[in-house]
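Quick check before the chapter quiz. The format below is the same one you will see on the exam, so make sure you can read both the input and the output lines.
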Amino acid sequence: MMRLTAGNNPEKNRVMILATIKLTINPTRPGHERSSEDVNLVHRQLIRYITLISLGFFLCISFASAVDFKASSPAVTQLKQNIKQRHGQLIPFYDSGAVGLTRDGLIVLRDASVVPLSGRQSVNTLVTAENQDRNALYREIALANNHPEWESNIRSTFAQRWIKWAKPGWWYQQENGSWQKK
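Here is the expected output.
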């Protein structure tokens, strides 16, 4: 009996899928006869796998279309205002590469050596305040949508948006944790 998954290993999954497709197209190999039951099993597993992939794709699309990222409450309005006001103070640090955008929707002092020792405390204070407001914003938008369980997905979407909106020359963290200059 053939299984279509190899855990979290995408390469093994790809090889198994290709092998399944090959068996489906050419179910016999010299010296290895396949019964019609084996072929039917492979077909059912392939259809199940394609169905699961399609379902996952549509769930992702429906989440993104279901979330109202502009949902408002007094808390959301105040947090957005705080972030907007602080942004002007952070721009020189983004421009110099001292501060970067993380993959989880926050910011971090990425390269302290770019900031004079006398200014590091103020940068750390700005970063801390920004991250507190960003964390609260993600939580409040989830609450405004009446779905607190969506917070991590909202955070992920915002992380992608912050990176998309970053100016050329700003640093952001890739999915694997490495830093990339835009």
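If your answer matched, good. Strands lie at 99-101, 107-109, 171-173, 179-181.
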